[in-house]
């Protein structure tokens, strides 16, 4: 927008407008790429944590004997496998 206003008010050449537009487009592309990489990395961390949690639960559910995991402070049941 600034380049267009400079073109209108200060009668800059079209070449400057094209160069400024190209530079702005490259800068915006770089910023969007960085945002995409950050969101993707955070998503992969979340997925990895969920997969580990699911595999741990699956392993505990396959035990032959009953298993109860209780909280130390209030003695509430945190986990009980399928045998119980």
List the helices and strands and how they pair.
Blueprint lengths: L1 H8 L4 H48 L6 E3 L6 E4 L4
Antiparallel strand pairs: 1-2
Helix pairs in contact: 1-2
Overview of this structure, please?
This protein has 84 residues and is mainly α. It has one domain. Helices cover 67% and strands 8% of the residues. It has a two-stranded antiparallel ribbon. Helix 1 (2-9) runs antiparallel to helix 2 (14-61).
Quaternary organisation of the protein chains: single chain
Largest sheet: 2 strands, antiparallel
Number of strands: 2
Mean pLDDT: 82
Global shape: rod-shaped
Number of helices: 2
The N- and C-terminal alpha carbons lie at a distance of 67 Å
**Biggest sheet: strand arrangement:** 1-2
Helix content: 55-70%
Label the structural class. mainly alpha
Key features of this structure:
84 residues; mainly alpha; two-stranded antiparallel sheet; 2 helices; 67% helix
Concise synopsis of the structure shown:
The chain is built from two helices and two strands. The chain is mostly helical and 84 residues long. Helix 1 packs antiparallel against helix 2.
